Amino acid sequence: MSYKIHQIDYYLPAKILNNDFLHNQVGIESDFLENKIGIKERRVAGETESCTDMACAATSKLLDADHSLREDIGLLVVCTQNPDYRLPTTACLLQHRLGLSRHTMAFDVNLGCSGFVYCMALAGACLNSGMAKKALLIMVDQYSRLIDQTDKNTVSLFGDAASAVIIGSTNAGSGVIDMDFGTDGSGAFSLIAHNSGIVKNAEKSSYLYMNGREIFKFTITVVPQSVIQILERNSLRVSDIKAFVFHQANKYMLKEIQKIMGIRDDQMVIDMELTGNTVSSTIPIALGNLFKTQAFLPGDKIILCGFGVGLSWGTILYVF
Amino acid sequence: MNDTVILEKLKVILREHTAIKVAITRDTALLSQSVVDSMDFMNYLVAVETHYNITIPDEAIASRQLGIIGNMVVYIGEKIG
């Protein structure tokens, strides 16, 4: 059985952090943020707003629009690195709050920017095995809780968001056609929140640490390799792809990948101006916006690629 | 490899990986003279590391003032012997 994306929705918190504010706060030039990084503003969760609150807001419209969904969803996967509690899982809390069937298989996945692609693969495996008719994937994170508001390297990049995606069956030859995944744990300390788990280190800040140079090097190496591998395996060229929807890390990085791979401007989706890097939600948000503005015909192909914390990456070839 | 060869290679790397618009000399200070921005500087460092198969620690960038082209030439020369 093949599987595809049926619906997408997302939620952005109300509070906006714009470039002028950041300029005053940490001295980064607004021009640089807007034109080079590609971000004008990012959203920040309210003080008492939890990830389950945001996930519910992202999902409610989808469930309310189709009342059969609550029964049809047999799998709920929640991708977050900021769960409400260490236990129970956010997925269990959401099964109840969203009114999903008690027969739903529900669990969390702790991944960052590669999370959506991984969750798509997990959902596909469950759908293919007959364990579920439909899957609900929720990506939700609040990196604002992890970020030092004076750290220029991170405060300007990340935004809070939640996204919800319904996955279900489709005709053979469409939907998710091929996938490539990878992990390089040797780079785990390049993007890390120390003291956020069992291991404590008093010498390390508990705020999010990002070695921008290492992440950049990893990305411009691994993403082209993974994408090219998928293209070659399916006898495709870059020019055969209608849209490349990569994790929206920042515009500079995407432009560099674009240059390396020879991707045309009209193929490359850059959509982070009003959201920032929303971690695992960047691909669903970009896809949701893309589906509203661009018509895809049967046979059109897109490439999804998530990459980041882990270090971890995943690429999907998707056919309409 | 002599200094001149390294300098010429750095010029090529800067042209290919940054939006640099000025002529490069040994005295050019990439960051303090705002010749490139922080993202282009990062890209330049990655390209240098990749080309010469070396690692440039953050501490060395500050202590050796590697934003100055002449200092980078000397640093690379030491690293690659």
Quickly list its features.
heterodimer; A: 320 residues; alpha/beta; 5-stranded mixed sheet; 4-stranded mixed sheet; 13 strands; 26% strand; B: 81 residues; mainly alpha; 4 helices
In short:
With 320 residues, chain A is α/β, with parallel strands linked by helices. Chain A is built from ten helices and 13 strands. The longest helix of chain A has 22 residues, at 212-233.
- Tally of individual helices of chain B: 4
As a percent range, the share of helical residues of chain A equals 25-40%
Helix content of chain B: 55-70%
Distance from N terminus to C terminus of chain B (CA atoms, Å) equals: 8 Å
Q: Give the strand content of chain B.
A: under 5%
Summarize the main sheet of chain B.
none
Total number of helices of chain A: 10
Low-pLDDT windows of residues of chain A: none
**Which regions of chain B have little confidence, pLDDT < 50, spanning 5+ residues?**
none
Strand content bin of chain A: 25-35%
Indicate the radius of gyration of chain A in whole angstroms: 19 Å
Shape of chain B: globular
Instruction: Give the strand tally of chain A.
Output: 13
Oligomer: heterodimer
Folded structure, characterized:
The complex is a heterodimer of chains A (320) and B (81). Chain A contains ten helices and 13 strands. In chain A, the strands form four sheets. A five-stranded mixed β-sheet of chain A has the order 1-7-6-4-5, sandwiched between helices. Chain A has a four-stranded mixed β-sheet with strand order 8-13-12-11, sandwiched between helices. The two termini of chain A are 15 Å apart. Chain A has helices spanning 19-26, 30-37, 51-65, 69-72, 90-97, 115-128, 152-155, 212-233, 251-261, 282-293; strands at 2-11, 15-18, 41-44, 73-79, 105-109, 134-141, 161-170, 175-183, 191-193, 208-210, 243-246, 301-308, 312-319. By secondary structure, chain A is α/β, with parallel strands linked by helices. In chain A, a hairpin with a 3-residue loop joins strand 12 (301-308) and strand 13 (312-319). In chain A, helix 1 packs across helix 2 and helix 3 packs across helix 5 (90-97). Helix content of chain B is 59%, strand content 0%. Chain B is built from four helices and no strands. Chain B has 81 residues and is mainly α. The longest helix of chain B is centred in the first third of the chain and has 15 residues, at 3-17. The model of chain B has no long low-confidence stretch (mean pLDDT 93). Chain B is globular, with a radius of gyration of 11 Å. In chain B, helix 1 crosses helix 4. Classes of the chains: A alpha/beta (320), B mainly alpha (81). Chain A binds chain B through residues 32, 36-37, 212-213, 216-217, 220, 252, 256, and chain B through 37, 39, 42-43, 45-46, 49-50, 58.
